[in-house]
Amino acid sequence: MEEILLEVEERMEKSLIQLNSNLNNVRTGRANPNMLDKIEVDYYGSSTPINQIASISVSEGRTLVIKPFDRNSLKDIEKAISNSNINLPVNNDGTVLRITVPALTEETRRNYCKEVAKYAEDAKVSIRNIRRDFNDKIKKDKTIPEDISKSLLDEIQKETDKYILKISEIEKNKEKEIMTI
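The structure assignment produced for this chain is given below.
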């Protein structure tokens, strides 16, 4: 019984981690080094995340400063960022790259909130699918006594409710962060 509940919690936690990863890439009008997490650079023939070949810091709240450990990789990093989907201009001064994050308009903020809601809904669907999978597994397993089966189903529902609530809180906080000027 404990094994099943631990597996349920572990899979639901992975859904929460995926949601947080997706939300890190949603712009909030402030510079955030996590905006570059999914961008990879062709570094000496292998695809490497930017944060492994350069230091990324925030300057003045709206500017990301990317300082490569190897100056020869500056052009490659600039090219990778330009080709990515972050749609922000990259300024190269020969030693560092600067990305200035512009202030968001009201319409853009609302669009980002819709994107956040979509990610949150996807996470909720994932949690519900995990619940369904385990409920089906428990109902089909005839070796589990009926009373234990019922209590397992109740515990899985409690976990589901807990994670749905966590997702709603994360969504609310991210929307608040986006809408704050």
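Interim note for the steering committee: The two ends are 48 Å apart (CA to CA). The mean pLDDT is 90.
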